[in-house]
Amino acid sequence: MTDTYSTRLGFAKFLAQEAGFLAQKLYREREADFVSTKGLQDFVTQADRAVEAHIRSLLLRHFPSDAMLGEEDGLMGDSSSIWVVDPIDGTANYMRGLPDWAISIAFCWEGEPEVGVIFAPERNEMCWAVKGQGAFCNDQPIQVSACAAPDQALLLLGRSARGSLSAYLDLVRSVIDSEMEYRRNGSAAVSLMDVAQGRAEGYYEAHLNPWDALAGVIIIREAGGIVRCAKGAEMLTAGSPVLALARNLDGKVLQTLAVE
Ligand code: IPD
Ligand code: CA
């Protein structure tokens, strides 16, 4: 690990933990105006904004030459070193007191994730990875599932209003027709943690934003999994479909998902 990345990893872990505890505190102290609506079934809480602002101020103080792209306030700065942050991924779970939500922090160099940290406070789980150094959960090494049999596989299928409903329903049908099982938990970051730890064999969503995906992308790769998504500037500016898969399952599953 280069010194630059070990410093950034340490800071990202500290930031994610701080942010998680702040989000839990703000939830406990919430009042009637805590949640606002951004669109159909698309919510933002006062905590999403406060947590992102907190992360931004700490990051920019410690790494003033780096840029940061966050879900709530967009891009600040212009640099090949960019932090990509989702202050609360799974907001619709968080605001209801459901446990699957997480803070997702990626550090990218020239558009590619090199460090990723995802912290799910209600699970007390922090997953992290640095390019070339393996993936870890609560500092123990993790690996994707070794399952090779579709009829024993569980896929996590994400969906948002950004994707077509009929395509999602077709996907669920073809997953079931292929004898696989599926779930949807409402947080891309938590789903990617689950694939990295071998609890599910794959995750697919027709569109993810970079802040939902990039920390998970490096964690899955370092846990031995396969990831397909857009790269570099394309991913950073527009997001893309994201597929994360356990390494022994690719052929049949790619066919089922029609992403070969
Ligand atoms: C959403 C969640 C959801 C996924 C959506 C994301 P948010 O992020 O990760 O699981 O299906 O595509 O936008 O709005 O909770 O930060
Ligand atoms: Ca998100």
Written account of the structure:
By secondary structure, this protein is an alpha+beta fold. It has eight helices and 15 strands. It is globular, with a radius of gyration of 17 Å. Residues 71, 86, 89, 211-212 line the site of calcium ion (CA).
How would you describe the shape?
globular
CATH architecture group name of the largest domain: 2-Layer Sandwich
Q: Please bin the fraction of helical residues.
A: 25-40%
Could you name the ranges where pLDDT drops below 50 across 5 or more consecutive residues? none
Fourth-level CATH superfamily of the largest domain: Fructose-1,6-Bisphosphatase, subunit A, domain 1
C-alpha-based Rg, rounded? 17 Å
What is the domain total for the residues?
2
Briefly note the CATH topology name of the largest domain: Fructose-1,6-Bisphosphatase, Chain A, domain 1
Topology:
Blueprint: H1 3-28, E1 35-39, E2 42-45, H2 46-62, E3 67-70, E4 74-76, E5 81-89, H3 91-94, E6 102-109, E7 112-120, E8 125-130, E9 135-137, E10 140-141, E11 154-157, H4 165-177, E12 181-183, H5 188-196, E13 202-208, H6 210-222, E14 226-228, H7 232-238, E15 240-245, H8 250-257
Parallel strand pairs: 3-5, 11-12, 11-13
Antiparallel strand pairs: 1-2, 3-4, 5-6, 6-7, 7-8, 8-9, 9-10, 13-15, 14-15
This protein binds D-MYO-inositol-1-phosphate (IPD) and calcium ion.
